[in-house]
Amino acid sequence: MAKQIIPKKHPMPHQDPKVRAKNFDEVALGYTEELALAEAERCLKCKNPMCMKGCPVSVDIPEFIAHVKERKYEEAAKVIKRTNALPAVCGRVCPQENQCEKFCIVGKKNEPVAIGRLERFVGDYMVNKEAEIEKAEATGYKVAIVGSGPAGLACAADLARLGHSVTMFEALHTPGGVLMYGIPEFRLPKAIVQKEIQNLKKMGVEIETNAIVGQIASLDELLQEEGFDAVFLGTGAGTPYFMNLPGENYNGVYSANEFLTRSNLMKAYCFPQCDTPIKVGKKVAVLGGGNVAMDAARTALRLGAEDVYIVYRRSRAELPARLEEVEHAEEEGVQFLFLTNPTKYVGSEEGWLTGLQCIKMELGEPDASGRRKPVPIDGSEFVLPVDVAIVAIGQGPNPLLTKTTPDLETNKRGNITADETGKTSKEGVYAGGDVVTGAATVIKAMGAGRVAATSIHEYLMGKGPKKN
Amino acid sequence: MYQIISKKALAPAIYEYEILAPKVAKKAKAGQFIIVKVDEQGERIPLTIADFNRETGTVTIVFAEAGYSTKKLGQLNAGDAVQDFVGPLGVPSHVDKLGTVIMVAGGVGVAPVYPIAREMKIAGSHVVGIMGARNKDLIFWEDRMKEACDELFVTTDDGSYVRQGFVTDVLREYIEKEGNPAMVMAIGPLPMMRAVANMTKEYGIKTMVSLNSIMVDGTGMCGACRVTIGGETKFVCVDGPEFDGHLVDFEEQLMRSRQYKSEEQQAMQQSSCGCGGGGKCHG
Ligand SMILES: Cc1cc2nc3c(=O)[nH]c(=O)nc-3n(C[C@H](O)[C@H](O)[C@H](O)COP(=O)(O)OP(=O)(O)OC[C@H]3O[C@@H](n4cnc5c(N)ncnc54)[C@H](O)[C@@H]3O)c2cc1C
Ligand SMILES: Cc1cc2nc3c(=O)[nH]c(=O)nc-3n(C[C@H](O)[C@H](O)[C@H](O)COP(=O)(O)OP(=O)(O)OC[C@H]3O[C@@H](n4cnc5c(N)ncnc54)[C@H](O)[C@@H]3O)c2cc1C
Ligand code: SF4
Ligand code: SF4
Ligand code: FES
Ligand SMILES: [Mg+2]
């Protein structure tokens, strides 16, 4: 290699951990132009860019970074937006260390290029610009999008651009899906999500909030009575799983969805000025080790909890959360109890949670997958005194829609069955995102939404011009 | 925004609103509920659908001022609007020709009982209504209930109207005299539903109750509304709100209904800071 490579990524400016652990402002402040230009120089513009193989939507990484080097940020944004509709979001929340950056060639000997941070820089640059609205001529076809998470948002944007008339139905009072109710402000400012939604509206997409498909109209009614020619289902994985341990219904035991929804969507962080209450607790245990667990733990700290524990049955290396979030959580003072498995909730006579009984685990023989399986250590039970516990062990699909659509094929976990083009068992009905794959990532959901948009477009065009 | 078409004060601190929500009205069925959110800062308040009119596109709700959020709702007037109104939520009541069904309503429970009684009668059941309240002032919709039921009994805890006694007293008298009905349905405060369920268990009468657990989204997404039914966890918003009263863990429900007692008192004491909800009050 001819060029001398700076071994490390240019560090991201952050709010000081002590300060940020008490506020909801964004933690990572974003690259300045200077930092972005310097980081862009680290990219080798590979002929055979390995990084792209790690990106679920194959963003043309070398090309967009080359535009950054030339300070042509709008050009850079155009390149990203060819495959990723939400760079400001994905730059922030993609698990880059397992995706694009994992494969970056620079990362072989040094730290990889900070692709995510550069993508965020470009995305943020565009957030303050008026989006150009390029729309094809109206086709006359009507498409319904059910659910306004990343899958639905991406699908709606593409279909609107292709000239279809798009109506989006959202069960909650605010569109955005997990981006609004789940991922906290300090990681993904809500203004960014709302800006994307404004752009959709400018493109003519109609958004109906407070509209639960399955309750307000069935899928068949949308197709047969309300005049929709096709439907995309992006209803997500919203049903929280519990561990079914004794005492799970004590007061003080939350699902992460409830805790985060109260704080994010209902703004309980400003209770009592906002009307929805939340029990914060002095000592809080969070069960699980993914992004959802990190978000719940860090939210609890910000709401004023004194001790927050992550209780995880495997070791640090297996934590499924984004590395950056784990590091941030540690810096902010979240305490990690690894190789620890909850066995029971302990409560008072009056029904309040007082502790979480756990058992210590050790790594046993490798299992079929080659991973060493945690096994309980006999007699190692102990009670962690906590007054709030937050269960963050995963979510399944919401059954409200599938329950009322018996002819829509689902698998045994309740996920909608769809092929790689998003097509379901029902004519004119497509699906994508977490409702198909189970809980996954923002970029995968978005990618699936875009693939489905292409299929829906082909399906509609195959019918010829719209007849009235 | 969803407009309040009419407002009636039915009793002290109990209001009836007709709200314009054509899509909800179109699909509403007896036994279902809606969630209303007054404004940007508002809490999501679940309320039963007390009536609906598909022609005018309106949904009727009846609520008691129980705390901060229902008081705030109660301050609105005809012509005002609420920001969010979502429904119909929950599984509709199973309405059928069942022989005699006894519909027991305690307090504000008259409102949710009314449409179910009406539908049961239309379906061909012999509907016996029993409605009770603490005193005469708190009795409302007696006229509507009279129409919806084949027989109606009214009672007050203090005897200030018709007779003195609890709904369970009237229920026992009726069963002793007429024999077991096909079904009893009870809607009202938890202790009242528990009392009814305990009593009908003695007689072996199938009994349905409608639970008012604390909710957030009402779509099965948060688990706040969970309840133990026959040893199994269910979500009231999507699996209910009606459950077999003999299987409900009432003690747990009572305990869970008190989860936010201290916050609820705090909410009642404060007045708005004016941050508009978008303010980062902790920042
Ligand atoms: C707390 C948390 C943190 C996360 N952190 C990350 C992260 O850092 N990085 C990452 O890549 N991924 C993360 N994820 C995962 C990611 O958010 C999801 O994979 C993604 O949002 C899935 O998108 P979706 O569009 O399929 O569904 P969702 O975002 O779940 O949206 C579905 C929407 O559909 C609505 N809906 C459901 N049923 C109906 C109906 N019948 N009618 C109308 N509307 C309906 C729901 O209300 C919801 O708004 C996180 C998830 C959570 C919960
Ligand atoms: C399916 C369902 C149907 C209902 N139908 C009616 C009805 O037709 N008429 C009526 O007057 N009331 C009804 N309720 C109860 C009503 O929702 C509560 O009285 C109201 O939410 C109290 O809010 P608050 O802020 O005014 O009072 P708070 O002071 O906050 O609470 C008073 C009590 O109400 C309960 N409560 C508090 N928050 C909630 C919440 N988010 N969801 C449910 N309960 C809560 C608690 O047990 C609490 O102790 C229903 C509840 C459910 C779940
Ligand atoms: S979308 Fe995500 S995975 Fe793809 S390049 Fe951007 S940050 Fe990397
Ligand atoms: S692999 Fe790394 S160095 Fe090569 S193009 Fe991709 S980001 Fe640049
Ligand atoms: S209210 Fe959230 S799951 Fe029932
Ligand atoms: Mg309240």
Describe the structure.
The complex is a heterodimer of chains A (468) and B (283). Chain A is globular. Chain A contains 18 helices and 16 strands. The relative contact order of chain A is 0.13. With 468 residues, chain A is α/β, with parallel strands linked by helices. In chain A, the strands form 4 sheets. A 5-stranded parallel β-sheet of chain A has the order 3-2-1-4-16. Chain A has a 5-stranded parallel β-sheet with strand order 6-14-7-8-9. In chain A, strands 10, 11, 12 and 13 form a 4-stranded antiparallel β-sheet that branches. Helix content of chain A is 33%, strand content 16%. Chain B folds into 2 domains: 2-89, Translation factors (Elongation Factor Tu (Ef-tu), domain 3, Beta Barrel), CATH 2.40.30; 100-257, Rossmann fold (3-Layer(aba) Sandwich). In chain B, the strands form 4 sheets. Chain B has a 6-stranded mixed β-sheet, with helices on both faces. A 5-stranded antiparallel β-sheet of chain B has the order 5-6-2-1-7. A 3-stranded antiparallel β-sheet of chain B has the order 4-3-8. Chain B is globular. Chain B starts with a strand and ends in a 14-residue tail after the last helix. Chains A and B meet through strand 5 and helix 13 of A and helix 1, helix 2, strand 8, strand 14 and helix 8 of B. Residues 43, 67-69, 264, 267 of chain B line the site of magnesium ion.
Q: Layout of helices and strands, plus pairs?
A:
The complex is a heterodimer of chains A (468) and B (283).
Chain A (H helix, E strand, L loop, with lengths): L16 H4 L12 H8 L9 H5 L6 H9 L3 H9 L5 H7 L6 H4 L11 H13 L14 E5 L3 H12 L3 E5 L8 H4 L8 H13 L3 E3 L10 H6 L5 E4 L5 E2 L12 E3 H8 L19 E5 L3 H13 L3 E5 L11 H10 L2 E3 L2 E8 L5 E14 L5 E5 L5 E4 L2 E4 L3 E2 L3 H4 L25 E3 L2 H4 L4 H21 L6
Parallel strand pairs in A: 1-2, 1-4, 2-3, 4-16, 6-14, 7-8, 7-14, 8-9
Antiparallel strand pairs in A: 5-15, 10-11, 11-12, 11-13
Helix pairs in contact in A: 2-4, 4-5, 4-8, 5-8, 6-8, 9-18, 13-14, 14-15
Chain B lengths: L1 E10 L2 E7 L1 H6 L5 E5 L7 E4 L2 E3 L4 E7 L3 H7 L6 E2 L1 E6 L10 E7 L3 H14 L2 E8 L8 H7 L2 E6 L10 H12 L4 E5 L2 H14 L3 E4 L15 E4 L2 E4 H4 L2 E3 L5 H8 L3 H9 L14
Parallel strand pairs in B: 9-10, 9-12, 10-11, 12-13
Antiparallel strand pairs in B: 1-2, 1-7, 2-6, 3-4, 3-8, 5-6, 13-16, 14-15
The complex binds flavin-adenine dinucleotide (FAD) (2 copies), iron/sulfur cluster (2 copies), FE2/S2 (inorganic) cluster and magnesium ion.
